[in-house]
Amino acid sequence: MKILDGRKVSNQIKEEIAIEVDQMKERGEKVPHLAAVLVGNDGASLTYVGSKVRSCKKIGFESTLIHLPEDTSEETLLQQVANLNANDDIDGYIVQLPLPKHIDEQKVLMAVHPDKDVDGFHPTNFGKMALDMESFIPATPFGIMELLRRYEVDTEGKHTVVIGRSHIVGRPISILMSQKGKAANATVTLTHSRTKDIKSMTLQADIIVSALGVPNFLKADMVKKDVVVIDVGITRVPDETRERGYYITGDVDFEAVKEKASYITPVPGGVGPMTIAMLLKNTLLARERHKQKNA
Ligand code: GUN
């Protein structure tokens, strides 16, 4: 069994990006600038956005955090999005999800200019991705693909079972892994809450990507020997004995499943750090494309 060490690989990617940023500075060029919009005070979102902004600082990007109160109106948020679209200093930005219930998430994501949409959530980018065109690939599936590529995991012709059909992970990873290319060319089955007998599917899988958000969902008797397991779940489980009051766990019964797996991602330290690294990679790409557009 080999651990797919997302922390280690994400640090490598960040170092590679930092070298490119240093070269940009030496040439007297503008460095990439990422902005993040956070509405409200959801604990997990605060942690993720904080981590994204800190990573920017570490690798030499400029960053801007726009933190709006929970009761921000949809109109005010759309105005902020319009301002970010118009601000030539910002190369890319994200609107952290989930948004408060009174705001129409789809309307906001549609308002993000596709050229600045480093999350790859706009239909223009999602559509281009699905059609093998140049776009921004959503950071979590992009991170999974990069992890598989860097560990040279053989995916060609392999049966990949994806659990969960979210727009952020399940749907895009099912598209990406079925495409041509490295860490792809797989035969993909997309399973979800209406799938009958998920266990009969996972037992056939060479690769499992679980993006469900249910702790300990994937058990050892649900997988075959030498399976590759990618655990995208990040659930906070309340725990009074911990200083933070919770611990983080994935979808996979890690201790038992790792005994059967050929490769497995830990939680934390697997897919999570890769998501941040690929957001930074997308921001670097946004800067390069922005520069070409202005040239
Ligand atoms: N919420 C959970 N994951 C993500 C992500 O990748 N991007 C944004 N904007 N919000 C999220």
Automatic annotation (TrEMBL):
Associated pathway: One-carbon metabolism; tetrahydrofolate interconversion
GO CC entries: cytosol
Record EC number: 1.5.1.5, 3.5.4.9
Domain Tetrahydrofolate dehydrogenase/cyclohydrolase catalytic: start-end pairs: 4-119
Domain spans labelled Tetrahydrofolate dehydrogenase/cyclohydrolase NAD(P)-binding: 138-290
Binding locations of NADP(+): 164-166, 234
Reactions accelerated catalytically: (6R)-5,10-methenyltetrahydrofolate + H2O = (6R)-10-formyltetrahydrofolate + H(+); (6R)-5,10-methylene-5,6,7,8-tetrahydrofolate + NADP(+) = (6R)-5,10-methenyltetrahydrofolate + NADPH
GO biological process: L-histidine biosynthetic process; methionine biosynthetic process; purine nucleotide biosynthetic process; tetrahydrofolate interconversion
Pfam families, per the entry: THF_DHG_CYH, THF_DHG_CYH_C
GO molecular function terms listed in the Swiss-Prot or TrEMBL record: methenyltetrahydrofolate cyclohydrolase activity; methylenetetrahydrofolate dehydrogenase (NADP+) activity
Domain of life: Bacteria
HAMAP family associated with the record: THF_DHG_CYH
Family: Belongs to the tetrahydrofolate dehydrogenase/cyclohydrolase family.
Job of this protein: Catalyzes the oxidation of 5,10-methylenetetrahydrofolate to 5,10-methenyltetrahydrofolate and then the hydrolysis of 5,10-methenyltetrahydrofolate to 10-formyltetrahydrofolate.
Subunit structure: Homodimer.
Annotated protein name in UniProt: Bifunctional protein FolD
Organism: Flagellimonas allohymeniacidonis
Name of the gene encoding the protein in the UniProt record: folD
